[in-house]
Design a protein that fits this description.
The complex is a heterodimer of chains A (about 200) and B (about 190). By secondary structure, chain A is mostly helical. In chain A, about 70% of the residues lie in helices and about 0% in strands. The longest helix of chain A has about 35 residues. Chain A is globular, with a radius of gyration of 16 Å. The chains are: A mainly alpha (about 200), B alpha+beta (about 190).
Chain lengths: ~200, ~190
């Protein structure tokens, strides 16, 4: 999911970086003082998730968890994921510094989209419906991320449909697993600490 | 002593490139360059595309990794070689082999000597004396073969992500959190 250094053309990198800066700006504005630790915890979760490999499918993929980050943090996903991706780039050489912007957008934008799509259902009265929405958030966030990664690669000459197919198929097991994880996290948090699911950016 | 020097020379040749989940590891062995490509958890990259460029960014050759993630090629010319691995989905890694690490190939292609030094005794024409060059070649080949497991170990070492880094990363996040909280609390 992380695009490496030296793959993308400069315009894609610049657009990615600019979008990431805007997203982070919006995100930082929305974080209240007492919600900062929550952002940090989810940033850490995302940081570690990429080390958990899913040994299914044709290539090697790992957990992303941007669905959970999205439904809990909303716009604050941008700064949370930027920090996590920066540390992954520096410490694990996942992705890269020049691709930090585009990688942040590819992961955080789906998180924000899922926040708007599903947070109402997740906070709703019906528990089953909330968990289904949780599953959808986990599944769709990875799907959108995969599609965004594929579209970023289009400008480097890879054919969109071929690239998209490859990325989406490779991440299909991850989508399902993330759906299940997100659904159970939603179920658990509703029971234990429903306040967390209220979200940061409304 | 000479052997030790040789080993260090070989170690100098090893260069490692890494990127998210894909790594390429290349080393010189005789007239060939061997590359191993693998994901960060050690799984070999099958049919990854390898491209080799010279110092002037001219493409010299390309190929695909086999089922063990390996790809080897004859040294095309004595120049700095940039080896790029493209494993698809935006995963790319590169490694460079410096010009000084590439042996000069001036001799015409000669008979392939197997690694067994026994070849000397097997040679029926015993009247032919063994030249210094022959001994050098045989020694080089034997050493190279003995070095192979060492290369693999080194390659493997590169695969693991250290626990310290993971904890360190979480520490950074907590630090950043503290910093932001501090700045926000001042505003209040």
């Amino acid at each position: 999911m992380h695009i490496s250094e030296g793959v993308l053309a400069a315009p894609v990198l610049v657009i990615g970086a600019a979008t990431a800066v805007i997203g982070c700006g919006v995100g930082l504005k929305k974080i209240d003082y007492d919600k900062i630790p929550r952002v940090a915890v989810l940033s850490s979760a995302f940081f570690v998730a990429s080390l958990i490999h899913v040994p299914l499918g044709p290539t090697n993929v790992h957990l992303v968890l941007n669905g959970i980050v999205g439904i809990i943090l909303g716009w604050a996903s941008f700064p949370a994921l930027l920090v996590a991706l920066l540390l992954q780039a520096v410490l694990f050489q996942f992705g890269g510094i020049t691709t930090l912007g585009i990688n942040t957008v590819n992961m955080a934008l789906p998180a924000v989209i899922c926040f708007y799509l599903f947070s109402a259902l997740i906070r709703g009265k019906n528990r089953i419906l909330a968990m289904i929405a949780g599953f959808a958030a986990g599944f769709i966030s990875v799907f959108i991320s995969a599609t965004l990664v594929a579209s970023s690669l289009v400008f480097t000459g890879e054919e969109f449909m071929a690239a998209a197919k490859l990325v989406v198929i490779a991440h299909f097991p991850v989508m399902v697993i993330e759906g299940i994880i997100t659904a159970s996290v939603v179920g658990f948090l509703r029971k234990v600490r429903p306040k967390i699911l209220e979200g940061i950016a409304i | 002593m000479k052997r030790i020097k040789y080993i260090f020379l070989l170690l100098g040749v090893i260069s490692i490139g890494s990127a998210h989940k894909v790594n390429i590891f290349a080393y010189v062995e005789g007239k060939q360059i061997f590359t191993q490509s693998y994901y960060s958890n050690g799984k070999p990259i099958v049919s990854g595309i390898i491209e080799v460029f010279n110092a002037r960014d001219m493409k010299l050759l390309d190929g695909e990794t086999d089922k063990n993630g390996e790809f080897s090629f004859l040294i095309p010319e004595k120049t700095e070689l940039k080896i790029i691995l493209n494993a698809g989905m935006g995963h790319r890694a590169e490694t460079v082999i410096k010009e000084k690490d590439i042996p000069t190939i001036e001799k015409p292609p000669k008979k392939k000597v197997t690694s067994k030094p026994a070849i000397i005794t097997e040679n029926p024409k015993t009247d032919e004396y063994i030249s210094k060059e022959d001994i050098k070649d045989i020694v080089e080949q034997v050493i190279e073969q003995k070095m192979r497991p060492l290369f693999r170990i080194l390659a493997q070492r590169q695969r693991t992500i250290s626990f310290v880094d993971v904890i360190g990363g979480i520490g950074y996040i907590i630090g950043i959190m503290g910093l932001i909280m501090y700045l926000k609390s001042k505003k209040k």
